[in-house]
Write a structure and sequence with these properties.
This protein starts with a helix and ends with a helix. The longest helix is centred in the last third of the chain and has 28 residues. It has one domain: Orthogonal Bundle (Protein Yjbj, Chain: A). By secondary structure, it is an all-alpha fold. Helix 4 crosses helix 5. It is globular, with a radius of gyration of 12 Å. The model has no long low-confidence stretch (mean pLDDT 86). It has 5 helices and no strands.
């Protein structure tokens, strides 16, 4: 999922983000608002990890959720 897709599907994937990074608050999720760099930054902040570590976590999450995200996008287009 690229940055544009993340932004467009943010409401659908927020729950998955919250499951993966439970330290992120609802306020954090509102600030992130589907912005890839904001997600990486908030993970850095909340978990005290380096930017490259946070970036890798987001990339791994993207890979594991790509199928789920594609299914959600197909349902959205169909409706």
């Amino acid at each position: 999922m690229n940055s544009d897709q993340l932004k467009g599907m943010w409401k659908q994937v927020k729950g998955s983000v919250k499951e993966r990074w439970g330290k992120l608050t609802d306020d954090d999720l509102e600030v992130i608002d589907g912005k890839h760099d904001q997600l990486v930054g908030k993970i850095q902040e909340r978990y005290g990890v380096a930017r490259d570590v946070a970036q890798k976590q987001v990339e791994e999450w993207n890979t594991s959720n790509s199928t789920k995200t594609e299914e959600v996008e197909e349902r959205r287009r169909a409706s």
